[in-house]
Amino acid sequence: MKTTTIVVPCYNEAERLNPDRFLKVLQEDPGLSFLFVNDGSRDTTLQSLHALRDSEPARINVLDLERNSGKAEAVRRGILKAIEGPCAYVGYWDADLATPLEAIAEFCSILDGGGVDVVLGSRVCLLGRSIERKAWRHYIGRVFATCASLLLQLKVYDTQCGAKMFKNAPILRQVFGTPFKVNWTFDVEMIGRFLLLQHRTGEELATSWVEHPLREWADIKGSKIGVKDYLKGAFEYCTLFFHLRAARSRYLSYLTASEHSGNHTTPSP
Ligand SMILES: Nc1nc2c(ncn2[C@@H]2O[C@H](COP(=O)(O)OP(=O)(O)O)[C@@H](O)[C@H]2O)c(=O)[nH]1
Ligand SMILES: [Mg+2]
Q: Residue 268 domain-assigned?
């Protein structure tokens, strides 16, 4: 049986956390476990998470970060802890369950199919699917997504969906090994890191990654992301533009140097 660990970053989620939905999906999938990361919450999130863990202690873990460090760092720390274990697949999922947990089984079967290393949830409005997003968030999201695609030079439709899964492979240690430069747009930086690292091995990211159009996605009330955060996001894209460009050229000169010297240790992206 293949095992999966899903990292759930939680910041002040006491009101939105729905323990029954997590317990239900654990019953349905015996290979699944959750690692909740409490990101320095100031409400009773930690107590709720401990109560949830106590009802299924073998398959629910809680990582408690004392200080609030932002979603990027909470996910990063969670993934690094999750991959220490023996899981075949690892992923992260927003605590508000905007993407229903039932989609985990769909992501797993895509990874089971072979040849796929990463599955990204994608919010595409298609007939027969239920993607309920506020119009203004949809349009701003599309502008961000188009910029992300241009920045990465990759035809990716939705980098910002909070549901992603990976095959547990050594590359994850490198991708998540060092803190991200940005917070709200860390998914873009993460993909950029994969691209740089796979450039070295000559792997084709475009063929081993799949964007999975979700059956259901809903904007859940209580998001803590406001207009200020969108402005921060725009600023982060500028940071990323320069950071990724510098990392790429550092990497290319490293490759040339290592070809000559025979040194094959990989620098962090
Ligand atoms: N807003 C916020 N969310 C965080 C933070 N750290 C972890 N998260 C988690 O990130 C996920 C997405 O947050 P949410 O407010 O729903 O953002 P949105 O869905 O993009 O509007 C949730 O699981 C949060 O609990 C943080 O510092 N701030
Ligand atoms: Mg949300």
A: no
